[in-house]
Request: fold
Amino acid sequence: MVSPQSTNREIFKPVKQMSHKLIAILFSTLPSFLTLFCQLTYADKELPLNTIKLPPGFEISIFAANVPNARSMSLSPNGTVFVGTRTAGNVYAVPDHNRDAIADDVITIARRLNMPNGVAFRNGSLYVAEVNRILRYDNIEDQLKDPPEPVMVSDSFPRDKSHGWKFIRFGPDGLLYIPVGAPCNVCERHDMRYASIMRMNPDGTGLELFARGIRNSVGFDWDPDSKELWFTDNGRDWLGDDLPSDELNHAPERGLHFGFPYCHGSNVSDPEFGKERKCDEFTAPAVELGAHVAPLGMRFYTKSMFPHEYRKQIFIAEHGSWNRSIPAGYRLVSVQLNGDRAVKHEVFAEGWLQNGKAWGRPVDILIMPDGALLVSDDHAGVIYRISYQKHF
Reply:
């Protein structure tokens, strides 16, 4: 088996041989090149996977190296993993044709897009969410090396870049769900699209609000039994290290309001807007995850590779704090449900944060057909695979 690190060294050998003059030209002509170069050269280093702590029997490996700024993921029925980015502006296709749990290639199928964080696959087409619009790439798997021009599905979303990147997925009802973050740390907007989760038909028609009072959701999934929506939400900043808590929320029906900007977490009234509304007017979080841990992608575990106690649990990727005096997050957590009630919340995988510094930041989670978890990392620029092997 060829190690991902060896592959990285071969791929990026030409980059290392570039002249200083050529690099200077690239820096001056491509505003995002410096960020990407730093990510790529970091991915070229050997990642300290041995620092990741998992429950007994679980293992972590590299599924795909050299996926700069890897963010949200979507899986086609043919096994291609599509990956969006936020700062890189790219969309990748990551096939594993021989199903050996190691990616065969990382193909850039779109470039220079406006924060194309969200990706969703349906009926042979890849949907990509930019800040203010949804694009569709038809028949994409037959044209990975020469992608078609995208079709505009909808451009009905605000252009604000603050919390403007989107996670998208198709729900059990066949509709495409699209969050619109608040364009601020905390503010009140009369435009009802802000701080919401919206949904629409696959052709872009019928756009409507599904839920409100949601500061910034970058991950959601549906209960495999009830088909009800669960989603993560990132709380406001600048109320100190420990307030307010980030959230896992449950929206069993359309029309619920989850409190932003008036109430944060279960009972933290906003200093500016909390006088207008009381916390008990809103739907409380299902779980308070802790302040500033930055929960992003989440998935219900529906396969059988993992032990039975993990079945129908929720896995959440915590991207990690950016302004907490003692960093928090940078890990995966699991939430155990009893019916529609969360009864247990604990760490599943940690170790990306070492001595107060992060070498990796989990973003999204994907459940593979064999039952393994894929976890994207936009800081290390890789996709991990977490599997379970029972040891007798």
User: Anything to note?
Assistant: Residues 33-43 form the longest helix (11 residues). The radius of gyration is 20 Å.
